[in-house]
Amino acid sequence: MSFLSSGTNPYAVHGRLVPDVPFDHGLSDSEDVSEAWRGLRDVIINAAGAVSGRMERIKYKNWFDGECEQVTNKKNQAYKRMQQRNHTRGAVEEYHEARRKKIA
What residue spans carry the region label Disordered (predicted)? Predict the structure, then answer.
């Protein structure tokens, strides 16, 4: 990546990053605009991959287990009951209690 900050000619850098794609500013008569955009997108993605490399996707642990799903379903049911009962005091308290429930 040092060649980017060394003040070299950007056209020379382009040739090193994407040597198989010609550097062209205009469209030919037969080329469609959407084809040109796809080509530009591919050039940018390939150049970014050449400069910064590829990052592996981070795999997260599966923390949302059956207990989480059960508590979430109870909270959602309490919310629906609160909506159906026009926010009566008992329904609101039931919903707030379901929201406060923590998973052990």
Answer: 80-104
pTM confidence score:
0.39
> Would you tell me how many other CB atoms lie within 10 Å of the CB of residue 11?
8
Amino acid symbol at 71:
V
Q: What's the 3-state SS for the chain?
A: CHHHHCCCCHHHHHHHHCCCCCCCCCCCCCCCHHHHHHHHHHHHHHHHHHHHCCCCCCCCCCCCCHHHHHHHHHHHHHHHHHHHCCCCHHHHHHHHHHHHCCCC
Question: The tokens 């400069």 sit on which residue?
Answer: 51
Q: How far apart are CA 21 and CA 28, in angstroms?
A: 15
**pLDDT, tens digit, for every residue of 36-51?**
888 889 888 888 888 8
Alpha-carbon Rg for the chain in angstroms:
28
Task: Answer for the pair 78, 54: CB distance below 8 angstroms, yes or no.
Answer: no
Domain borders along the chain are 2-52, 66-100
